[in-house]
Amino acid sequence: MFHTLKKTAEPSRRVPFGHSTKMAEVHVIGQIVGASGFPDHSLFCKWGIHSGGGWKILSGLREGQTQVDNPQSQDAAYFAHPIDIHFATKGIQGWPRMHFQVWHQDAFGRNELYGYGFVHLPTSPGQHDIDCPTWRPTGTFMESVSQFFLGGGPHLKNPDLIYSGADRYKLQTIAMGKIHLRIGIILRNFDKFGIEC
C-alpha cells in the first residue's frame, strides 16, 4: 500500500501586487537601456533608488550594477538592465528618484568614474522614456594632469550629494553623457487613500 502525501506550497514572502498593507502602491518596471555621449566605450553603470521615510519596499532591489558593454562600432553602450521594484506609500512626499554612477573600464581592468546623475521617477502612470544627464567633479589643474596620465580622478566622498542639492551646487563639474531609461509606472489605490500626484 502506497500513500501519497500532498505537498503544500510554502507561503511566498513576496507580497502580490494589490495585496499590501493599507497603503497606496507604486510599481516601477523598466530598464536602463544604455548610455551615450561619453568619451570612451567599455562602460558600466551602478544605480540605486532613494525614497523618503514614508515609503516601504514590498519587493525588488534598491540598487544594482549593469554589465560592462564595449561596443566596437557604435557610439552608445547598451545595458538592457531590468528594473523592477514595488513600493507602498502613505503620500507623495519623498517620491523615489534614481541615482547613477557611470564607470569606464580600461583594457587593464581599471575602473574610472565617468559621471554621476539622478532623475525623479515620473509621477504619472504609463511608459516613459527618460534621458538622465550626467556630470563629474573637476579637480585642480594638477589633478586634471594626473588624471590624464594616471587615470582616476576626483570622486564624491558622500554619494548622497548626487541627489541632494544642498551642497552639490558648490561643486565645480563638467558635463558628461546621458543614461537612457525606459520606465513603466503603475499606481494603485492612490484615489482610495486620497493621495494626489
Automatic annotation (TrEMBL):
GO biological process, one term: cilium assembly
Matches recorded under InterPro entries: C2_B9-type_dom
Keyword Cytoplasm (UniProt): yes
Alphabetical keyword list: Cell projection, Cilium biogenesis/degradation, Cytoplasm, Cytoskeleton
Cellular compartments annotated: Cytoplasm, Cytoskeleton, Cilium basal body
Top-level taxon of the source organism: Eukaryota
Keyword match Cytoplasm: yes
GO cellular component entries: MKS complex
PANTHER family reported in the protein's UniProt record: B9 DOMAIN-CONTAINING, B9 DOMAIN-CONTAINING PROTEIN 2
Family designation: Belongs to the B9D family.
Listed name of the protein: B9 domain-containing protein 2
Organism this protein belongs to: Elysia crispata
